[in-house]
Amino acid sequence: MAPRPRRTDELSKDVIVAAATELLDEGGEAALTFRALTTRLSTGYGAIYHRVANKSDLLAAATDAVIGRVVTGAVPDASPREALRTVALGLFDAIDEHPWVGAQLSREPWRPALLEIYERIGGLLTALGVPGPALFDAAGALVNYVLGVAGQNAANARLSAEADREAFLGAIAGQWARLDPERYPFVHRAAAQLRDHDDREQFLAGIDIFLAGIATLR
Amino acid sequence: MAPRPRRTDELSKDVIVAAATELLDEGGEAALTFRALTTRLSTGYGAIYHRVANKSDLLAAATDAVIGRVVTGAVPDASPREALRTVALGLFDAIDEHPWVGAQLSREPWRPALLEIYERIGGLLTALGVPGPALFDAAGALVNYVLGVAGQNAANARLSAEADREAFLGAIAGQWARLDPERYPFVHRAAAQLRDHDDREQFLAGIDIFLAGIATLR
DNA sequence: ACGACTTTGGATCGACGATCCAAACGTGCG
DNA sequence: CGCACGTTTGGATCGTCGATCCAAAGTCGT
C-alpha cells in the first residue's frame, strides 16, 4: 500500500464550519455536500464526521455563526424604534449575503440562532413600551415577518445563481403584466412596481407598517 | 419474458398529484419519493415522468391545488377587514393541514400558488382603502408575514411527525425557562406563554397588528 | 389487419448522506 | 528510549434517492 498523506494541522469544527459557509455562499445549499467538503479541506469523511454529527448539525452550526455575528453587534444608543430598524436591517443584510440562512431558520426554529433573534427583538420591543401581554404576540409577528422575507430572499438567491437576477425579475414582471387584468387586477397593476422595486426598502416599509401597528397596542 | 400486467385506466396528472398529496400529508416531504409513488399507484417510473417533469414540478402542482382550493373559496360579503381575516385564517388552516405547502411557497414563490395569494390579498387591501403607492408594500408585508408563519408551522409539523408535539413544545419551553434570566430576559419570560399559546390565535393577533399598521397608511 | 404513435414498467445510472474500519499519529508509561 | 493504547484521519462501501432510457403493451386511424 502506498503511504497516505495526512494533514498536520488539527481539523477543528470552526474550520469545517467556515469551509461549509464558503461552499454555501458560493453555490447555495445544493453545493454543500460532504464530498465537496472533503475536497476543499483535503481530507476524508471520517475527519468531518468526527467533528460534526450530520449535515443538519453542520447547517445549524453555520447558521448560528452567521446570526450570532449580527445579533451581538452593538447598536449605538438610539431610540428603541431606530434600534429595531437597525437590527432588522442587519438581519436582512446578513440573510441577503448568506441566503441559505433564511431557509435554515425556518427549517429548524428551535436552534440557538432564532432564540437570539427573539431575545433581541423582544428586548427592543420591551424598551419600546409594548405592554406585557401583547409583547409575545408582537415579537412573534415581527419575527415571522422577518422569516418570511428571509425565505423569499433565499428563493430569489437560488434563482440568481442560475440566471441573471435582474433579467429573471423582469421576466416575472412581464409575465404578471401579461395576465388578464380582469382576473388579476392587483397583480397586473403591481407588475410595474415589481420590476424596479428595492428589496431592502420594501423590507423596511414592512417593518414600519408593523411598528405602526405595534404603536396602537400601547 | 413473462407478460407484464398493465393498468387499464389512464393515469392522469390529477391522480398523480392526489397520490403525492396523500404521501406528503402522511409522512411529510421526505415521504414523497418516486418509489413510493410507483408503489401507491401500482405503476412504474415511466408513467409518472410522462405526466410530470420532475419532483419540483410535482410539488408545485400539489401546492397549486391546495392553495387554489383555499383562495377561490367564496367569502360571504363582509367588511374588507373581516374578509381579510377570513382569507388569512383559511391560508393558515390549509397550511396547518398540509404543512409541506408552507415550505414550498417559500421555495418557489414565482409559481401560480403565490400569485393567487397576492391577488387575493392585494384585492382585499384595495377594498380596505389602502392608497395606491402603499398598496404594494402593504401586500408584500402581509404576504411575507403569512409565509413566515407558514414556514414555522411546517417546521413544527416536521417535529410532530417524530414525537408528540405537546411534549416537544413543553421541552422547548422548559429549556427557555432554564435560560439565564440576565442574559435572556425576554425569552425567559416568554417561556410560560410559549407553553400554552394557541398558534391560530397568535397568527390572528399578528394579522391584527398588521391591519392596525396598515390603517395608519390611509 | 397492420403500422404509427402513445402510454407504461422497470433496469440502470450517477450522486448523495451516512457508516465503518484500518492506517497513521501522538502521548505517556515503563 | 520504545512500545502500547487511545485519538484522529482517509477512503471504501452501503442503501436510497431523482432521473434517464428503452422496449413491451396498448390504442387508434386507415
Please report the total strand number of chain A as a whole number.
0
> So what's the overall shape of chain A?
flat
Helix percent band of chain A = over 70%
Any low-confidence stretches of chain A, pLDDT <50, length ≥5? 1-5
Rg of chain A is 21 Å
Give the percentage of residues in beta strands of chain A: under 5%
Structural class of chain A: mainly alpha
Task: Work out the oligomeric state of the chains in this entry.
Answer: homodimer
The helix tally of chain A amounts to: 11
Report the order of strands and helices of chain A: HHHHHHHHHHH
The pair of chains with the biggest contact is:
A-B, 56 and 55 residues
Report on the biggest sheet of chain A: none
Task: Give an account of the 3D structure.
- The structure is a homodimer of 218-residue chains.
- Helices cover 74% and strands 0% of the residues of chain A.
- The model of chain A is unreliable at 1-5 (pLDDT under 50).
- With 218 residues, chain A is an all-alpha fold.
- In chain A, helix 6 (100-107) crosses helix 8 (132-162).
- Chain A has helices spanning 13-27, 34-41, 45-51, 55-71, 80-97, 100-107, 112-127, 132-162, 165-177, 185-195, 199-215.
- At the A-B interface, helix 6, helix 7, helix 8, helix 10 and helix 11 of A face helix 6, helix 7, helix 8, helix 10 and helix 11 of B.
- The structure holds a DNA duplex (30 and 30 nucleotides).
